[in-house]
Fold this sequence. Notes:
It is a single chain. By secondary structure, the protein is α/β, with parallel strands linked by helices. The protein has helices at about 40-45, 85-105, 115-125, 150-155, 175-185, 205-210, and strands spanning about 15-20, 25-30, 55-60, 65-70, 70-80, 110-115, 135-140, 160-165, 190-195. It has a single domain (about 15-210), classed as Rossmann fold, CATH 3.40.50.
Amino acid sequence: MPLSFRSLVVPRxxxxxxxxxxxxxxxxxxxxxxxxxxxQGILHWFRHAERPGRVLVAPEGLSRFYQERKGLxxxxxxxxxxxxxxxxxxxxxxxxxxVAAEMLSTIPRLEVHGFSQxxxxxxxxxxxxxxxxxxxxxxxxxxxxxxxxxxLGTAVAPEPVHFAVGDRDAWVAPSLVExxxxxxxAAGVQVVLHRFSGGHRIDNGVLDALDGITPKSEPPPNVx
Length: 224
């Protein structure tokens, strides 16, 4: 008999890291980590963005695995792989929909930050958002090839789409991010590119610049 597969939707626990008070916040940052990270790792990089009235929310990818890093066996998580891809995409989108509905529905302003692998997840969810997204920031990652760049502008207008990349990023070449920026601009979408000195990480200077940017403001000197 030939091998066949069936799909079954199952309940499971998901872990979401939170910094700040969900009950009193007027602004939420939904932060999607990179490949091999956990919620606490990405939130450590975003602690500089803590502000009164802002809550940082980092859902953890549903696929955890062991990995070797610097001789240590650690646990990381992933948003998806190419295996059973369509169901993986459906699961991650439904997961984020539930986070937004259960944890963020009463918070007036929501922005989305994706880092590395989390950029593709963040962009897909922002385009098919179930609630308004005030701003999308793509850190050190590239957009998924199946995404129509023009849809990003519709999703976050009038705010530009923000990209950030370090000049010494060894995991995602700055040229790849710059190529995405040009594609989005060519689709008629306003874009801000933040360049910083450093590698594959979140940059405190860019976080400060983002806090100083409003939809109609002039970009600071370190952006283009």
